[in-house]
Amino acid sequence: MGDVRAQATSAHPAGAIVETCQRIEAYAWGSRCDCAADRRLRGFAAVLHLATVAAGLDSAVLGEAQILGQVRAGVEALRGRSPDIIDAAIASARQLRAEAGFDATTGHLLDQALPLAGLPSRGAAVVIGAGVAGGLVARRARDLGFERVAIASRRPIDAPARFGADRWLDLAALPGTGPFDVAVTCLGSAAPELHNRDLPPARAYIDLGSPPNICTRVAPVVRLADIIAARGDDPAGAGQRARLQGRLREILASRLAMAGERSDTPLGRVRREVERVRQREAARIARLHPDLSHEAIETITRALVNQIFHVPSERLRAMGDAELGERLADLFTTTEGTP
Predict the structure, then answer these.
(1) Cα separation of 231 and 217, whole Å?
(2) Fewest 10 Å CB contacts: which of 3, 69, 93, 299?
(3) pLDDT (tens digit per residue) in 68-103
(4) How far, in Å, CA of 254 to CA of 271, rounded?
(5) Which residues contact 228 (CB under 8 A, 6 or more apart)?
(6) 23-49, pLDDT tens digit by residue?
(7) What share of the chain is helix, strand, coil (3-state, %, to 5)?
(8) pTM for the predicted model, two decimal places
């Protein structure tokens, strides 16, 4: 992963890198790309892909909660060139997620892995790794019905219950614990590979690391790649993703059309005036709350304006009533000195 990240950064020094547990993607402005990526997208297809990833439609767990924030942080570097396009992609993803009512997290990978391992959700489980993913998996194991859940890490955990676990285990002493019905690894990309001598006895192992945490000589292991492959064999799941992708395309096209509205049209005038108000209020918030970062203020205020502005704009555009549009624009137009 480190080599891929370095290659992506070197090939796109002025671009943005989106990195999650399952992907490293580079986004940049311009038509030239000399990187070694096996897939390249341009124009609307690239923006749609960005929205697709942010919505969680391309994740192993459909609609996983963490992906939106990861993508938003990754593409922040591109907002200076064309904030409207980036905002449209992120806002479209957020709208689709709200419509679909997604509530899944990385922990739901366990739901897909257990049938592949041939195990019921009961007995004793140990989650190796106490990061965000490890905590989500441990809590999901408890929700699914495992009576005993342990979490293992290099550093002690004072309150394992906040992870949904009964106890903490020292990673170095893990081979002497157990046995467990299932052991799940959720270690970071920099973690060393685990061998039989590093693992507790278990009926099966589930490796959710990317790259894999467990070496190929350990068996039986269900890996993240196996979960993703099984997703491709599910026609119903593929159909659901395709339907959501179609809806996302509609939302994104609509938002990009709104963002591209000329400033001399009624909608363009409204958008220009609303943006002036947003900028003024963002500056005021920055003065009143110096603890908030500029990026946080921009993200929050832009998201709020986009949500308020989107539906009325769509309805006005569909009506095609130029006179009504001009009247609405006049209501938004401010004069010098207006607060």
Answers:
(1) 25
(2) 3
(3) 988 988 898 887 777 888 988 998 999 899 899 998
(4) 15
(5) 22, 60
(6) 788 888 876 777 777 788 989 999 999
(7) 55, 10, 35
(8) 0.74
